[in-house]
Design a protein that fits this description.
There is one protein chain. The longest helix is centred in the middle third of the chain and has 14 residues, at 53-66. The protein has a 4-stranded mixed β-sheet with strand order 2-1-3-4, with helices on one face. The chain is of the alpha+beta class and 132 residues long. It has one domain (32-131): Glutaredoxin. It has helices at 11-22, 53-66, 105-118, and strands spanning 30-35, 74-79, 91-94, 98-100. The chain contains 3 helices and 4 strands. The model is unreliable at 1-6 (pLDDT under 50). The structure holds FE2/S2 (inorganic) cluster.
Length: 132
């Protein structure tokens, strides 16, 4: 009782496991990283999470769907702290290694329409200002 027999199998897990091993995914054209790090209430250091990063993540995903960007062509990932917390929310667009600071939901449209669609970092958002 309570001991799993060596002869016992879990066939329902075999197919998904094989899928992850054998399947590949297309290399995305862009990868958008959105820092969604949060800190406990009262923490002295600001965080992107407390500055609305979750809404940005949703706005990027909704914006891609609304523009009918094919699945996998642009990936959006939530990340932990990327470093420049005082200038968050922080968004980084690869492969260009372009860093956007203090990103708002309105900026998401600009990033999608100028950077992702046209291939040029959105100058009006002062990209890479975190490095200057
Ligand atoms: S919490 Fe987002 S950059 Fe540090």
């Amino acid at each position: 009782m309570g001991v799993v027999s060596a002869a016992m199998s879990v066939p329902s897990l075999e197919i998904p496991y094989r899928f992850f091993i054998e399947e590949t995914m297309p290399k995305p054209k862009y990868h958008i990283l959105v820092c969604t790090n949060s800190r406990p209430p009262g923490h002295p250091k600001p965080s992107c999470g407390s500055a609305g990063a979750a809404q940005l993540l949703m706005a990027f995903n909704m914006g891609l769907m609304q523009r009918a960007v094919p699945p996998g062509e642009v990936l959006v990932s939530a990340t932990g702290c990327l470093g420049p917390c005082e200038q968050g929310p922080t968004v980084v667009v690869y492969p260009d290694n372009t860093w956007y600071s203090k990103v708002t939901e309105a900026d998401v449209v600009t990033i999608l329409e100028e950077h992702v669609a046209k291939g040029t970092p959105a100058a009006k958002l002062n990209p890479d200002s975190v490095w200057k």
